[in-house]
C-alpha cells in the first residue's frame, strides 16, 4: 500500500501542471462560448439582450468532456509505450496493473476536475448573463455526461493499450471508434430494405455524448420560459416533442455502450497483466489491432464500392490493404495469413455485386 502511495505521489507531481493547464483551457472555452452566444441591441444604458444562442453553450461542455476523455488516456498510458521509460517504470516494486490503475485514476481525476469546474463556471456565467434555462436539469445532465465521458475514456484506453507504440495505439483507437458505424453501413448493403442509417451514428463511441446533450438541452433550454417566448409556444413545443421522440428510440444505446465500457475496462487490466515490458516499441501484433482492422476496413469498403460497381475504387482499396499490411509488418515480408486476408477480398466484391 505504501509503495502504491509513493508511486501516486511520484506521478502526481508530473501531472499537476498538466491538470492546471487543461482546467484553464476548459474555463477559457466556456467563457468564450457563452459570450459569443449572446447578442445585444442598443448601446450604453439602453443595451438589452436580444438573442441567446443556447445551442452553443451546452454542447461546449460536452465537447470539452469528449476531448478530455480522448486525450487523457493517451497522455497517461503513452509512458508505457516508450523503451526509454521501461527501466524507470519497472524499477518500481509495483505490479503493472497497479501502475496502470494509478495512471488511469489520475487521468480520470484530471477529467473530473477540468469538466466540473468548467461546467460550474458555465452555469454561473450563463445564468448571470442570460438566465434562460431550467437550472434543475443541469444536475442530471452533469452526471449523465460524466458517465458518458468515462465510457469514451475506457474505450480509448483499451484500444490504445493494444498498440506497442504511441502511433499504433492512436490508430487502433481511431480505427475501432469508426468500426461499429461502418458495420452498420455494410448491413445497409446486404439488407437495403432496412433503415439502418439512424443507428449508424450511434455506432460511434462518442455519439452518446452528443445525443444525451440534445436530450438535456431540450429539457434545459427549449422548455424554459425565455425560449418559449422567443420561439412561440407552438413552435417550441413541436421542436421539443419531435426531438425527444427521436432520441427516445435509441436511448438504449447509452446502456449498451456503458456495458461495453465496463467489459473493455476489465479486459484492459487483463491485457495489462499479460503484457511484456520488452514489447514496448515493437510490432503491434494484438488481435485488437492491424490484424483485425486492415481486413475489416478493407472488406467493408470493398463491399460498399462493389455494390456501386466502381472498379477503380476496389483496386485502390486493395492497394491500401496491402500498404496497411506492409506498415503493420514494417516491411515487405508478409506472412501467409496476410496473403490469405488479401485474397479474401474477392468475397465482399462478389457479395456487393449481387446486391446492386
Topology at a glance:
Blueprint: H1 2-36, E1 38-41, E2 48-52, H2 54-77, H3 83-89, H4 96-129, H5 138-161, H6 166-190, H7 197-202, H8 207-222, H9 225-231, H10 233-248, H11 252-274, H12 290-308, H13 311-329, H14 336-343, H15 346-354
Antiparallel strand pairs: 1-2
CA distance, first residue to last residue: 63 Å
Largest sheet: 2 strands, antiparallel
Number of strands: 2
- Secondary-structure-based class equals mainly alpha
Radius of gyration: 24 Å
Helix content: over 70%
* Overall number of domains: 2
Number of helices: 15
- Assembly context of the chains: single chain
Unreliable stretches covering 5 or more consecutive residues:
230-235
The mean pLDDT is 75
Strand order of the largest sheet: 1-2
- What is the overall silhouette? flat
Fraction in beta strands: under 5%
The H-and-E topology, N to C, reads as HEEHHHHHHHHHHHHHH
Amino acid at each position: 500500500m505504501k509503495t502504491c502511495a509513493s508511486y501516486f505521489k511520484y506521478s502526481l507531481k508530473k501531472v499537476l501542471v498538466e491538470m492546471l493547464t487543461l482546467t484553464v483551457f476548459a474555463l477559457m472555452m466556456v467563457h468564450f462560448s457563452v459570450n459569443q452566444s449572446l447578442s445585444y441591441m442598443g448601446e450604453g444604458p439602453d443595451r438589452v439582450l436580444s438573442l441567446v444562442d443556447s445551442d452553443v453553450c451546452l454542447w461546449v461542455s460536452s465537447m470539452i468532456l469528449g476531448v478530455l476523455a480522448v486525450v487523457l488516456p493517451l497522455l497517461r498510458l503513452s509512458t508505457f509505450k516508450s523503451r526509454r521509460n521501461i527501466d524507470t517504470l519497472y524499477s518500481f516494486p509495483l505490479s503493472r496493473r497497479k501502475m496502470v490503475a494509478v495512471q488511469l485514476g489520475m487521468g480520470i481525476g484530471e477529467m473530473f476536475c477540468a469538466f466540473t469546474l468548467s461546467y460550474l463556471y458555465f452555469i454561473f456565467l450563463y445564468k448571470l448573463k442570460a438566465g434562460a434555462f431550467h437550472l434543475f436539469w443541469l444536475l442530471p445532465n452533469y452526471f449523465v455526461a460524466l458517465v458518458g465521458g468515462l465510457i469514451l475514456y475506457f474505450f480509448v484506453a483499451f484500444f490504445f493499450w493494444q498498440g506497442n507504440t504511441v502511433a499504433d495505439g492512436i490508430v487502433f483507437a481511431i480505427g475501432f471508434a469508426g468500426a461499429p458505424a461502418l458495420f452498420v453501413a455494410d448491413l445497409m448493403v446486404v439488407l437495403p430494405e432496412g433503415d439502418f442509417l439512424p443507428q449508424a451514428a450511434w455506432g460511434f463511441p462518442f455519439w452518446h455524448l452528443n445525443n444525451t446533450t440534445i436530450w438535456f438541452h431540450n429539457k434545459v433550454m427549449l422548455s424554459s420560459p425565455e425560449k418559449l417566448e422567443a420561439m412561440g409556444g407552438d413552435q417550441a413545443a413541436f421542436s421539443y416533442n419531435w426531438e425527444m421522440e427521436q432520441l427516445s428510440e435509441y436511448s438504449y444505446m447509452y446502456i449498451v455502450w456503458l456495458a461495453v465500457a465496463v467489459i473493455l475496462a476489465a479486459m484492459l487490466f487483463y491485457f495489462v497483466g499479460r503484457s511484456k515490458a520488452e514489447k514496448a516499441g515493437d510490432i503491434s501484433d494484438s488481435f485488437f489491432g492491424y490484424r483485425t482492422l486492415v481486413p475489416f476496413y478493407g472488406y467493408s469498403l470493398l463491399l460498399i464500392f462493389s455494390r456501386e460497381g466502381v472498379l477503380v475504387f476496389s483496386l485502390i482499396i486493395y492497394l491500401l490493404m496491402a500498404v496497411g499490411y506492409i506498415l503493420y509488418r514494417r516491411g515487405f515480408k508478409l506472412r501467409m495469413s496476410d496473403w490469405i486476408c488479401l485474397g479474401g477480398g474477392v468475397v465482399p466484391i462478389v457479395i456487393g455485386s449481387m446486391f446492386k
